[in-house]
From TrEMBL:
Cited SUPFAM superfamilies: Nudix (SSF55811), Thiamin phosphate synthase (SSF51391)
Organism: Aromatoleum diolicum
Database matches in Gene3D superfamilies: Aldolase class I, Nucleoside Triphosphate Pyrophosphohydrolase
Alphabetized GO MF terms: hydrolase activity
Protein name: 8-oxo-dGTP diphosphatase
First-tier enzyme category under EC: hydrolase
Length: 313
């Protein structure tokens, strides 16, 4: 039986968005491959403590704060590896490479080194996912007003939009989603269409976002570059992971105007539900820009919001 090894890995990001990769040295498994810095979790250590120790030993930096992010598993010939990925939120010191052949600061959208260690490869797509998701409600406020708000938000660097209009007809949704794609493209923003992969493909959107009811009946992942889903329970999150979805949205964290009286998770409940998942999860429900740090501290990839995403116009 292949032994299972727990490994902690850190995503160290500069202010320009580039993240650090290290090249495995000669004499190690997969020599020459690139990976996120980190190492094995020793007996009695938590993954977070192991990462802090490893980054000190490998890179000579003192880590002050890490945030839980993703947990992925990969079976190599020599070991079944469970990788605990963390966002290295605060660190100090000068990088001094003690174990790698080379270090490189890379971009998620234009990686310049390779090959990636197989267990680390899928992380690159997750790093392409923006941290804030704006969700539309054009049927409520009017299409023209929503498009104006989207235009303003794109100018303020919004990079991810979910077109969610359950009360629109297919024809109206197609027209509206097409307009969103048109205005989003020059800004490099991703657009997901809620509930209809065919319309997403027709208008040239980047992917489809599945409501929870649709997720529960999903047998095959839709043929889109990006596929996400709305979730409310751990079972739904695990279903999204099992289907190979790229992300999930989980809520409600706090009370919302959209669903008054709905039970809420709070940050403690949110953190419990997302622990150990292999894909990014956005926090949803009564959240604003000021909640981003709390969301990521709880294990969220970022925040999704309806009203909190749009400049009022």
């Amino acid at each position: 039986m292949t032994k299972r090894v727990d490994v902690a890995a850190g995503v160290i990001t500069r202010t320009d968005g580039r993240f650090l990769l290290g090249q495995r040295a000669p004499g190690t498994f997969y020599a020459g491959y690139w990976e996120f810095p980190g190492g094995k979790v020793e007996p009695g250590e938590s993954p977070a403590d192991a990462l802090i120790r490893e980054l000190d030993e490998e890179l000579g930096i003192r880590v002050r704060k890490v945030r839980p992010w993703l947990t992925r598993e990969h079976v190599y010939e020599h070991a079944h590896v469970r990788l605990h990925f963390f966002d290295v939120a605060e660190w100090e010191g000068e990088l001094q490479d003690h174990v790698h052949s080379a270090l490189s600061w890379e971009r998620s959208d234009a990686q310049g080194v390779g090959p990636m260690l197989p267990a680390n490869g899928p992380i690159l797509k997750s790093l392409r996912l923006p941290r804030w998701m704006g969700i539309t409600h054009a049927a409520e406020i009017g299409v023209a007003r929503q498009l104006s708000q989207i235009d303003d938000a794109l100018k303020q660097d919004l990079k991810l939009i979910q077109v969610r209009e359950p009360s629109m007809s297919a024809a109206d949704l197609t027209a509206f989603a097409g307009e969103v794609v048109r205005v989003a493209r020059p800004h490099g923003a991703l657009v997901m269409v809620n509930g209809d992969a065919d319309i997403a493909c027709e208008v040239g959107a980047d992917g489809v976002h599945l409501p929870a009811a649709q997720l529960r009946t999903l047998s095959v992942r839709p043929e889109c570059d990006w596929v996400g889903a709305s979730c409310h329970t751990r079972a739904e999150l695990e279903c999204a992971a099992a289907r190979g979805l790229d992300y999930a949205v989980l809520g409600a964290v706090f009370p919302t105007a959209t669903h008054p009286g709905q039970a809420t998770l709070g940050w403690g409940g949110f953190g419990e539900l997302v622990r150990g998942l292999p894909m990014p999860v956005f926090a949803l429900g009564g959240l604003a820009r000021a909640d981003m740090d709390d969301a990521r501290d709880a294990g969220a990839h970022g925040v999704a919001a309806i009203r909190g995403s749009w400049i009022q116009s």
